[in-house]
Design goal:
single chain, 507 residues, globular, Archaeosine Trna-guanine Transglycosylase, Chain: A, domain 4
Length: 507
């Protein structure tokens, strides 16, 4: 079967996407041949587009022509830019019942004493401030596995996935209002995370983010062990006390056993990074199909990255279960408009140089592709950064677009697994939640096969449908939740990527 050299996503689109690099003279539509070389994943016009006219992809506006564009010409940053246009929020207009499966899928999870289900079993070392980061790392390093050798200090504890220090660059020199509350909400979410069997938090002693205040505000008394370096008596004594705590906890943590549990116990964070022109064609829609399966089996998916939903929010407000939920999302967009203006930035600065090299032109185009990760089910809640996720179904969480910061908020909210799509080849992990990497295209997948778990480029090549790829992703979600290691886990990713959102002035 001959496959077209381009992909047309909607009948209303004035552009198509190149499956591979196209030389001049390639036929891309009836009577239309390429005038320029069109890079892989980039757009080519298939009809005349006047200066100032909207340019559509996915049947939605992705920008406006900044000059007249002839059929066959390359459409990108040189001739497509942002512009204002009216959005119809049509709150709740597309809400529909989500049919659940009579026999939910299952996985082998770890049941905690409070009944929650974990997908991994870590011991965590949190830090209240950057000043205790090195000490925390010294403790964790004693128990660190080497991904390139057989050296494993935890060999006698096969049911423990690791000991991880989650350090950060803040905790002091900060204002004691929203920035401190956000940091504490993040640390509290990790301290309570179901994938941690035991947690210790290390502080210096004189920081703004006092451990006592953290524990009181987040109601953590009895959930973790706390130590201040100044009170314990310095680095050596604190490291020794931390090591003793971990050794004491290991035997207890190793007692866990996996049992068959329903897929409704899954809370999956949806992420994308290093995106390209194929992200919204292959990996993101396939993850969306998998997200629909998670929700239909009673589970939860979390979409985030608010700046990467900008311009497409009107499609989510239509799926909001109530006007109140939809208005929460619109309010977030207004906050981001004000935030970026105050910081001398603009929302369209979001697509990175790598995104643009991969074929993404505007934030509108990126957003329309990014939101495909969330599938088609109803939007049941909109949350602030790192707020606990308590509802089943499709949830939106306010986060920046920067992947480590966004995923940190989702995991703090309770995600026990992460699915991360990438077109350029992001390498990423997010302990204590396992991270599944989904490649948008086959060349990158083959080049980085040791880092990628799923090749979604099969969709571009006509080997499988979006639904079939989505089923494959869902099946891997169940296997991963049952303990099968991901590619990022094989390299021990996930500690250094912990990145709480830093707001406000550094004093």
């Amino acid at each position: 079967m001959t496959i077209s050299p381009v992909i047309r996503l909607h009948p209303d689109d004035g552009v198509v996407i190149a499956r591979a690099s196209l030389p001049p003279g390639t036929s891309v539509a009836d009577g239309v041949t390429t005038v320029d070389r069109i890079p892989s994943g980039h757009k080519v016009a298939i009809k005349p587009i006047a200066d100032g006219e909207p340019i559509k992809r996915y049947g939605q506006i992705i920008g406006f022509a900044t000059q007249a564009i002839a059929p066959g010409q390359h459409v990108h940053t040189h001739n497509c830019g942002m512009g204002d246009f009216a959005k119809d929020y049509a709150y709740c207009a597309d809400v529909k019942p989500t049919p659940n499966f009579d026999l939910p899928a299952t996985f082998e999870g770890i049941r905690r004493p409070d009944g929650r289900i974990a997908t991994r079993n870590y011991i965590g070392i949190l830090t209240s401030v950057n000043c205790s980061a090195h000490v925390a790392s010294l403790v964790a390093d004693v128990f660190k596995k080497n991904p390139f050798t057989d050296d494993n200090p935890l060999a006698d504890f096969p049911n423990v996935d690791g000991v991880v220090a989650l350090t950060h660059k803040t905790g002091c020199g900060m204002t004691q209002n929203e920035p401190l509350a956000l940091l504490r909400r993040t640390l509290g979410g990790y301290a309570r995370h179901v994938n941690f069997s035991h947690v210790i938090v290390l502080g210096l002693g004189c920081e703004v983010n006092q451990i006592g205040g953290l524990m009181e505000e987040q109601k953590l008394a009895g959930r973790l062990r706390a130590m201040d370096i100044q009170e314990v008596g310095g680095t050596r004594k604190t490291v020794e006390a931390g090591i003793a705590f971990v050794r004491e906890a290991l035997a207890d943590a190793n007692k866990v056993k996996r049992e068959t549990v329903p897929a409704s116990e899954l809370t999956v964070a949806l992420q994308c990074g290093g995106s390209d022109g194929y992200s919204g064609v292959s990996a993101n829609p396939a993850l969306g199909a998998a997200s629909d399966l998670v929700v239909r089996h009673g589970g939860t998916v979390i979409l985030s990255e608010t700046p990467e939903t900008y311009g497409a929010e009107h499609l989510l407000t239509r799926r909001a279960v109530s006007r109140e939920v939809g208005e929460k999302l619109v309010d977030l967009m207004r906050w981001w408009d004000e935030y970026t203006t105050r910081e001398g930035a603009e929302m369209n600065a979001n697509p990175s140089p790598g995104n643009k090299a991969g074929g993404l032109t505007t934030i509108l185009e990126k957003s329309l592709g990014a939101m495909a990760k969330a599938g088609t089910t109803n939007l049941v809640e909109v949350l602030r950064y790192a707020e606990p996720v308590t509802k089943k179904g499709f949830v939106f969480m306010d986060t920046p677009g920067y992947d480590p910061v966004a995923a940190t908020g989702q995991v703090a909210g309770g995600a026990n697994l992460v699915c991360f799509t990438t077109g350029r080849g992001s390498v990423f992990g997010c302990k204590p939640a396992p991270s599944i990497k989904l490649a948008t295209n086959t060349p990158m997948y083959k080049r980085m096969e040791e880092d990628m778990d799923v090749n979604c480029g099969t969709i571009l090549e006509g080997e499988e449908s979006v639904a079939q790829c989505g089923q494959r992703i869902f099946d891997l979600i169940l296997k991963t939740a049952s303990g099968q290691p991901t590619k990022s886990e094989s390299f021990d990713f996930g500690g250094a990527e912990f990145a709480p959102w830093v707001l406000g002035a550094t004093m």
